[in-house]
From TrEMBL:
Protein name: Adenylosuccinate synthetase
SMART domains: Adenylsucc_synt
Main location: cytoplasm
Lineage: Bacteria, Pseudomonadati, Pseudomonadota, Alphaproteobacteria, Hyphomicrobiales
Needed cofactors: Mg(2+)
Gene source species: Methylosinus sporium
Pfam family, one: Adenylsucc_synt
Active site: 13 (proton acceptor), 41 (proton donor), 142
Function according to Swiss-Prot or TrEMBL: Plays an important role in the de novo pathway of purine nucleotide biosynthesis. Catalyzes the first committed step in the biosynthesis of AMP from IMP.
Family label: Belongs to the adenylosuccinate synthetase family.
SUPFAM superfamilies the UniProt entry points to: P-loop containing nucleoside triphosphate hydrolases
Keywords of this entry: Cytoplasm, GTP-binding, Ligase, Magnesium, Metal-binding, Nucleotide-binding, Purine biosynthesis
Catalytic activity: IMP + L-aspartate + GTP = N(6)-(1,2-dicarboxyethyl)-AMP + GDP + phosphate + 2 H(+)
Pathway entry: Purine metabolism; AMP biosynthesis via de novo pathway; AMP from IMP: step 1/2
Length: 431
């Protein structure tokens, strides 16, 4: 039985929450391996909606172990609030079904303040589109070797030196930005306030996961955002602050690369993104608005309206390659129901020459022109379909053409937010 890594094959918001929830029925462990609470998942189970940001999607399933790996930056106060909200919905969360890596870096209020200041001070055209939740500054402190990590909360006698090292960077920066300096005691109080509520979940996750793997437990690795937001392989600088590709499932959890089995990419039947950055197939017309309205394309955490466009096979094909994707879970096919025709981007033109990838250059990304193939739409409905026989013939042709263009088969097809409205072609855990 293969362990499974789930990654977004576009710019995020592809519907990973539902797919991870669906797969978690066969998994024993669900692991978040990167990102922070800047990317949310919405789950709809038996008519009940759960909105998650930090907690792995498996947390709503009894009998599953949910894990936050070391590759995640954790806002302790946000996490405490999220746990309380889910408990109010009847979800049981305790140290027996939820663990946090002891070496996970923490997001503090100073990170959120710096994040917000930078984004608000940036002029038009240079805004990244950050959620202002402190993710980027927290990752900066991680690689700058000045993070306060979860394990540090268990050793309050050593906190002062760590806070001094942290503020030796942040206070001069704040002075230069015209922001008030932060007193060490304020940081200490902030940390110690969260400590008793979060420390019970701390564990040596790398060791725990290796023991579970050797015992034959099935592990589902859950990524946040999408491959096109990867800090190395995405549309830099309009990216997130972590590696979102499947390889980071290993480094972000403490397991070796051999622990990764099947890589499942999630892609919408069209394309969306939030915030700034290039978007070759973006629609600025009534069809783009229609897709956004039908698909309820608003951020789970931020409420920001997502930009919408036609399916971009160039970008998804690139994601398939950079993440080693074995198969695709195609979501939201039903949003395209009733359209007379559907367009798919097959390649680009860059300064008049054909190109079959998105170039790394920011200026070149802005100049690419999408080249489309037009596919006949369908009048029937795909919403709620649970077998190929339930799909209009032309919808099946659309799915098959996407498979050809991206170089990967469709392993699952999602036809509504409900977990059961899923057509299984290939079970990733049995591949």
């Amino acid at each position: 039985m293969a362990n499974v890594v789930v990654v977004g094959a576009q710019w995020g918001d592809e519907g990973k929450g539902k797919i991870v929830d669906w797969l978690s029925l066969e998994a024993d462990v669900v692991v978040r391996f990167q990102g922070g609470h800047n990317a949310g998942h919405t789950l709809v189970i038996n008519g009940v909606t759960y909105k998650l940001a930090l907690l792995p999607s498996g947390i709503v399933r009894p009998g599953k172990l949910s894990v936050i790996g070391n590759g995640v930056v954790v806002d302790p106060h946000f996490l405490i609030g999220e746990i309380e909200r889910l408990r109010e919905q009847g979800v049981e969360i305790g140290p027996d079904n939820f663990k946090i890596a002891e070496n996970a870096p923490l997001i503090l209020s100073l990170h959120r303040e710096l994040d917000a200041y930078r984004e608000e001070a940036a002029g038009n055209g240079v805004k990244i589109g950050t959620t202002k939740r402190g993710i980027g500054p927290a990752y900066e402190d991680k690689v700058g070797r000045r993070s306060v990590r979860l394990m540090d909360l268990a050793e309050p006698d050593t906190l002062d030196d760590k806070i001094t090292r942290l503020l030796a960077h942040h206070n001069p920066l704040r002075r230069g930005l015209g922001l008030p300096e932060i007193a060490p005691a304020a940081v200490r109080d902030e940390l110690l306030d969260a400590a008793p509520k979060i420390l019970p979940y701390m564990d040596a996750v790398w060791e725990l996961l290796e023991d579970l793997r050797r015992a034959g437990k099935r592990i589902l690795f859950e990524g946040a955002q999408g491959v096109l937001l990867d800090v190395d392989h995405g549309t830099y600088p309009y990216v997130t602050s972590s590696n979102t590709v499947s390889a980071s499932a290993a480094s972000g959890s403490g397991l070796g690369p051999g622990a990764i089995g099947y890589v499942l990419g999630i892609a919408k039947a069209y394309t969306t993104r939030v915030g700034g950055g290039p978007f070759p197939t973006e629609l600025h017309d009534e069809i783009g608005t229609l897709i956004g309205d039908r698909g309820h394309e608003f951020g789970t955490n931020t409420g920001r309206r997502r930009r919408c466009g036609w399916f971009d096979a160039v970008l998804t094909r690139q994601a398939v390659k950079t993440s080693g994707i074995y198969g695709i879970a195609l979501t939201k096919l039903d949003i395209l129901d009733g359209l007379d025709e559907i367009r798919v981007c097959t390649h680009y033109l860059l300064d008049g020459a054909r190109i079959d990838r998105l170039p790394a250059s920011q200026s070149a990304q802005a100049r690419v022109v999408p080249v489309y193939e037009t596919i006949e739409g369908w009048k029937g409905t795909t919403g709620g379909a649970r077998s190929w026989a339930d799909l209009p013939a032309q919808a099946i042709k659309y799915v098959r053409r996407i498979e050809e263009l991206i170089g990967a088969p469709v392993a699952l097809l999602s036809t509504s937010p409900e977990r059961d409205d899923t057509i299984l072609v290939r079970n990733p855990f049995e591949d």
